[in-house]
Amino acid sequence: MFELKERDGLARICxxxxxxxxxxxxxxxxxxxxxxxTISPKEMKERxxxxxxxxxxxxxxxxxxxxxxxxxxxxxxLLGFDGPVMTxxxxxxxxxxxxxxxxxxxxxxxQTAIGSDIGTILDVFSEPxxxxxxxxxxxxxxxxxxxxxxxxxGKMMLAGTVQGGVYPDIRERCARDISALDFDxxxxxxxxxxxxxxxxxxxxxxxxxxxxxxxxxxxxxxxxAGHPMVFPLAVLLGCDMFDSASYAKYARQDRLxxxxxxxxxKDLHDLACHCPMCSRNTIEGLLQxxxxxxxxxxxxxxxxxCLREIKTVKNAIHEGSIWELVEMRARAHPxxxxxxxxxxxHKKYFERFEPxxxxxxxxxxxxxxxxxxxxxxYQERYFSRYRKPDTRVLVGFEEAQKPYSKHYSKEIxxxxxxxxxxxxxxxxxxxxxxxLDEYYPIAQSVIPAAMDPEVRRKMNAVMERxxxxxxxxxxxxxxxxxxxxxxxxxxxxSPKKRDQDVLRVCAVLDMQFGKGAGDVLNxxxxxxVKSERTGKIRNVIIDGMHAFSMRAGDGxxxxxxxxxxxLLEVLKPPKMRVEIDDEPAEFAAKGNNxxxxxxxECDPDIRPGDDVLVVNSRGELAAVGRxxxxxxxxxxxxxxxxVRVKDSSD
Length: 650
Known about the structure:
- It is a single chain.
- With 650 residues, the chain is of the alpha/beta class.
- It folds into four domains: 2-348, Queuine tRNA-ribosyltransferase-like (TIM Barrel); 362-490, Rossmann fold; 499-556, Nuclear Transport Factor 2, Chain: A (Roll), CATH 3.10.450; 572-650, Archaeosine Trna-guanine Transglycosylase, Chain: A, domain 4.
- The protein contains 27 helices and 29 strands.
- It has a six-stranded parallel β-sheet.
- A hairpin with a 2-residue loop joins strand 16 (421-427) and strand 17.
- Helix 10 (200-213) runs parallel beside helix 17 (334-342).
- The longest helix is centred in the middle third of the chain and has 29 residues, at 291-319.
C-alpha cells in the first residue's frame, strides 16, 4: 500500500506499507551483499537510522550457505535486519556477465520463499547504445517475463521494471503496459551507464517518459541511483526510492561522496563535513590507516551524506522549495545544469502536478527559474481567465516593491483622479493587474532587479503578446507627470468611481476558479471584512452569507459552503467539481474528508491545492474542500485523502 502524505509537484512524501513495517519515501535503500559486509545491517538501522535495505536474491541463491539459511530462516534473519527488505533478481549480473542461469519465474518464486518484502522480476537490461529495434525487443521480452512473473508473487510485493534504453516513446510504452499488470513498485532500470557517464539529461528524459506511462499510485524506484548528486533532481521528477552500493564501492577506492560530487581522499585539503566520522578523524589520520579500516570509515561518511541528502530533499518538499533546491544543486556540475535546462520542454506535464500555491515564496535562482511550471500556469491563466474592467485606458508600471498597489498608491490615485483607468505591472511572471498584486505567485516572490538577458527577452515577449491582446483603446507606461498631462489631453469625460476591492475579488475568483466565476457577484450585496492591521480583504459576505475567505499567505480564496453553492450556479460541469459515490458524499456532507478510492470523476483542470466542489452522482453539492491530488491521481490511488473537506452541507 502506498499513500500520499505531502507533495511539491511530482516530488512527494508517501507512506509505503510492507509486511515488515511502514517506510516514508523518498527513501534510500543501502545495498547489502551478505558476502561482503562493509557496514552490518544492524548498525545501519541502529547508528544510521536506515529503514529499508536491498540485497540480491541471485547472489543469495548462488551461494549455498546463504541459500540454505535464507530458505530456512528467511532473508531478514540472514541479514540480521527486522525492517523491510527488497531483493533484486540478477538482471544487472545477467547483463554484465551473461551467466545468470535462472528462469524468470523461478527467481520470483525464490524471492517469495525467502520472505522478501518486495521482490523484483528478471527483466532485460537495455543499454543506452541499443538501437531502437534492440530496445523494443528487450522491452517485449521484459513484458513477457512480467506477465509470467506476476502470478508467482503470492503475498509478496513485486516490482515490475521499466526498460527501453534512451528512447522516450519506448520507455513510455513499457511503463504503460507494465502498469496494467498487478505490480506494487516500478523500478526504472537501465540507468546505471547514464549515471556513470554523467548523462543526466538523458536520465531526466528517461525518468519523465517513464513517469508519463506509470500508474501514479505506485512508488517509483530509480535502480542503481545511489549518489546524492542526483537525489534532488530525481525526486523532483517523481522518483520515490533509491538504492546505493556506491557508499561502499567508492569507499574501497578512497572516494568520499558529497551532495556536490565525489572527491578522492588524497586530493582533499579538508574533509569539509560534520558527520560523526569526519568530526572524529583527519585526512592525515585516515591516510595512515590500514585500507580495510579506512574503507569502513569512508563508507560511514558516504552513507551519512546520502541519508542526509534524502532528509534535505524531504525538508524541501515540506517547505515547497524543491525547485529551488534542484536549481541550486544543479550548479554543482555542468551536466546537472544541462539536465535542468532540458526540463523546459516538459513543463506542461509538470504543471498538471504543480501545487496551486506554496508555503514559501518563489525564489529566483537563475534563468532556469523562469521555466518553472508556476510561471507557465500564471501566464496561461492570465491570458485565458482574466477579464479586464470596463475601462478604456490602461496604465502600466515597471516591476517594483510588493505589494504593487501600495508602492504605486500615489500614482494610481493621481491617475484615477483624472481618468477612468486600469492599472497593470510588467512583472517577472507577466502582466500583473493591480487587482492581482496579492495573488500567488505575484506577491509571494523574490526576484532580483538584475536578471539574465535571455529571461528579459522572454518577459518582453509575454508583454508584447499582452500588448496585442489587452483590448484597451489606449495603453501607456507610467513616466511621471508627463503621463498625467498626456492622459488629460487624450481622455475626455469625468473619471468613474470604482471599488478596487470588488475588482480584486472578481479578478481572483476568475483566476482561481475559471473565467466567469466572478459573475457570482453580479446583482448581489457585497460586504467585505478586512484585517484591522493590514487593511487586506479577509472575508467576502454575499447577500449576508459568508462565501469566501481570502488567505493572507497566497491571496487565494478558501471556499465556504455558500461560495460553493454560488460557484455551482455559474460554472458548468465538470468545472472545479470532484464527483464521488453517493454514500461517501453523505459522509463528506458531515465534514469527513474524501478518500481517493471513492472518486468517480474529476475536472481535469483541478490541481493539488485547488479549492474544489465535492458533488454526488447527481451533481448536488455535498461539501467544499482542498484538493490534494489532480484528476489522474485521484482516479489511480486506492488509499489516502483526495480532498480535505473545509466546509460541508450538514
